[in-house]
Design goal:
Distance between the termini: 21 Å
Number of strands: 7
Radius of gyration: 18 Å
Strand content: 5-15%
Largest sheet: 3 strands, mixed
Order of helices and strands: HHHHHEEHHHHEEEEHHE
Strand order of the largest sheet: 6-5-7
Helix content: 40-55%
């Protein structure tokens, strides 16, 4: 009952922040200020959890609870995502049937670039995520796309994230009104309540990080994507960012969108941008 009450009420300060950011979209695109939004977003968490080191927010629930953090650090000696790392490294190096590899599709051969995804493609006018870019690479080389939610895609992104560990998230918003609109769309999706439970993403990850929902400690929204993909005990396997969005929608009893829909790509853009400066920690592990 205590956890449910916390979820429903949250803190007054968090509610005020959420209200301010969920107000109807009356600001013109040329007045959108992602830099100010990111500063406000980060400062909210830094002030609410003053004892948490800034770079530790990327460790999700483990930054919120000392006992869980100790258990996680011990588990990291033999991390449950290690099998995915090994598989992803092998897959990444294995040539396609035409002899090319993933390295031919990405800057710097695909190594150490996770912190730059997603990016806004000014030619296409849309957000391009790492998962989407990997499948586009496959299809351009005559290969079938992978599922966006787990298995091969999770292994590939696990390996690519690992090569970026410690590098600060560095998402750009080009001087293009469509990029600002994508950022705003992502922000609006993040704060919009939906589903039978009438929860938004922010209900759990802005209003209630550190609180328990059943046995699970809710992670802060700040840095939540820096650890992706993740191994989750409740999944008994690896999952991608797409899988996490689909799962979140299902948990609020909303109808999930298709993985890599425009809405999910935009919310990934928003959450990644407001985490700029925090290190990549993926692949991660969660209960």
């Amino acid at each position: 009952m205590k956890a449910r009450t916390s979820l429903l009420l949250g803190s007054l300060s968090a509610a005020l922040v959420a209200f301010a950011l969920t107000s109807p979209r009356v600001v013109a695109a040329d007045k959108v200020d992602p830099v100010a939004d990111a500063k406000t977003f980060q400062n909210f968490f830094f002030q609410k959890f003053a004892d948490v080191k800034h770079e530790d927010f990327v460790n999700g629930p483990y930054s919120m609870n000392a006992d869980m953090k100790r258990q996680w650090q011990e588990k990291e000696e033999f991390p449950p995502y290690e099998f995915a790392l090994d598989a992803g490294k092998e897959m990444f190096a294995t040539p396609f049937k035409n002899g090319k590899t993933y390295a031919d599709c990405f800057p710097n051969g695909g190594i150490g670039i996770r912190q730059n995804y997603p990016y806004f493609d000014t030619g296409e006018g849309k957000v391009v995520t790492l998962e989407l870019a990997l499948n586009r690479c496959r299809e351009a080389n005559g290969e079938a796309p992978y599922s966006y939610v787990k298995d091969e895609m999770a292994s590939l992104t696990a390996y690519m994230a690992f090569t970026s560990r410690g590098k600060p998230m560095d998402i750009k918003i080009p001087d293009d009104p469509r990029a600002l609109e994508a950022f705003e769309n992502g922000k609006r999706y993040f704060y919009t309540r939906r589903g039978q439970l009438n929860f938004s993403c922010a209900s759990c990850h802005v209003q209630s990080p550190g609180e328990r929902i059943r046995a699970e400690i809710l992670a802060p929204a700040l840095g939540i994507l820096n650890a992706m993909p993740i191994y989750r005990s409740e999944w008994s396997g690896m999952g991608t960012i797409s899988r996490r969005f689909v799962t979140c929608n299902s948990q609020t009893r909303a109808v999930p969108l298709e993985p890599q829909s425009d809405e999910y790509r935009d919310v990934e853009y928003f959450l990644s941008y407001v985490a700029n400066g925090l290190p990549i920690s993926g692949p991660g592990a969660r209960p």
